[in-house]
Amino acid sequence: MAEVEIYSASVCPYAHRTRLALLEKGVDFKLTEIDLQNKPEWFADVSPYGKVPVIKYGSDRVWESTIINEYLDEVFPEPPLMPNDPGERAIARIWIDFANVKFVPTFYKLLLNQEPEKQQESAETLRNHLLFMENEGIGKISSGSYWFGESLTLVDIAFYPWFERWSVLEHYRGFAFPAECVRLQKWWDVMSDRDLVQSIKHTADFYIEQYIQYANNTASGITAQEMRQN
Predict the structure, then answer these.
(1) What is the mean pLDDT of the chain?
(2) What's the domain count of the chain?
(3) Any idea where the GST C-terminal domain is (predicted)?
């Protein structure tokens, strides 16, 4: 059987998603770490967007983290990381889309914005997103520890990497996690304590150092460029 190859970067939250999915699936994989500040020339032939993650498996090459993760869930069906019910799967995809389209861009905008007024606007938007996630998301559709009950899904994985990086917002923007988001805080604690999450977890200081260029808006990577355009 072919081995899964993943092109990743330890600092990248999108690649973090796929590393978590591979670990949760118990899939053996070959990891190639990419220096995003000094990408090798050959990487352009691997990643059409010039970003991580990218995976190769047999003749398949897949990029974009949430698409990769659904691919992995189909190719390696055990344990399942999406709900079995079609309606619940649709809701799961809605929340994954919310992470990609609403939550994550606002996280980056709060970091990248240099003007206090725009920072305040982004902080308020992010706070509203968190309250929406608390009240309309995990607080409404789940009675368990995770977004869809007692089993981890791709929704949990879609959000978690940015929570692990929350120290960046606290350090550079003074953005405290809302006390009203009780269910989200409990979910965050449960996710943080998972053995497989712990196995690749980085410290707050690591992220604070790595994200300084986002905080002063000198980051030159593709993600930073895309977020400035949103």
Answers:
(1) 96
(2) 2
(3) 85-212
